[in-house]
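Q: How do we represent a protein-ligand complex in a form that can be generated token by token?
A: Start from the inputs.
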Amino acid sequence: MMNIGFIGLGMMGYPMAHLLAQGGNALRVMDLSPAATSRFVSEHEGACTAATLQDFSDAQVLITMLPDSNAVESVVLGKDEMQGLSGILRPGSVIIDMSSSEPVRSRQLAGHLAGLGFRYLDAPVSGGVKRAVAGTLAIIVGGDAQVLAEMEPVLKLLGKCTHVGPAGAGHAMKALNNYVSAAGLVATVEALHAGQAFGLDPEVMVSVLNASTGKNNTTENKVSQFMLSGAYNSGFSLALMAKDLGIAMGLGKSVGQPMPLGEQVLQIWRDANAALGQSADHTEMYRYSPPKA
Ligand code: NAD
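Then emit the structure tokens for the protein with nicotinamide-adenine-dinucleotide bound:
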């Protein structure tokens, strides 16, 4: 059993923290939403809330599942008058950022934390809410292999780890994965719209795509389930996908690798985000019509 601090009980964080508690760990949780923390504590005997970051002083492992690097840095390093976890946790404890953060900033953060005697892993995840609930996430880990070996019994409760390199590598791989996924989604939606305009039935289209070479994660797991059904409730927001694409394109720039298709895909996601708003699910891309040329 470990003392685990968990910050960020959103669409992903809540079911992940649930599995950690169910696995016999002592959980202390925090979120900007008091409703999320009270619900968690009421549903998990022995779990506690952290009223301030100071309450995490006993945590052996601190997991963040927050929207982005800004939020992660604000809790780890502190913000304005608020002292961050790096002034609160005991040296030797492990900080695991499971959010989809920016790789270059994560690498810097890891270096800073190492200087203070902390251990750090970036361990973003793929698989969405469904696999977070099932504990079958793909966990993409950057950082020291020995720290990962020590943390694997905890992370195993959430899914399967793949070590991809030093600190920051997990976040780099995650952003690139989401670029490929987001490009596939846009291509699928464009094909559906063009096919329908030609007179094809979208349900027939998706079954043909799934039996053919156009098959991808969107055709298999999103079109019928969240788009054609009109449910649009996958649990992954369009704004977060646009954020991930921005990270992937920033990565390309930082290493001098042109990504011309990616830049266009990013623009489409940003335009859709502006048109549909912050609360839109990413599968609502199906509802978005780009301006006619
Ligand atoms: P979410 O918006 O549902 O949850 C984020 C949570 O963090 C919210 O509950 C919010 O109140 C809380 N929060 C924000 N800032 C905070 C702060 N400073 N202190 C405490 N709590 C704070 O987001 P999500 O969908 O759970 O995604 C979390 C991360 O996981 C993101 O980086 C996202 O890109 C990534 N991700 C999401 C999915 C998905 O399917 N939703 C899949 C893989 C990865």
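The longest strand covers residues 137-143. The mean pLDDT is 97.
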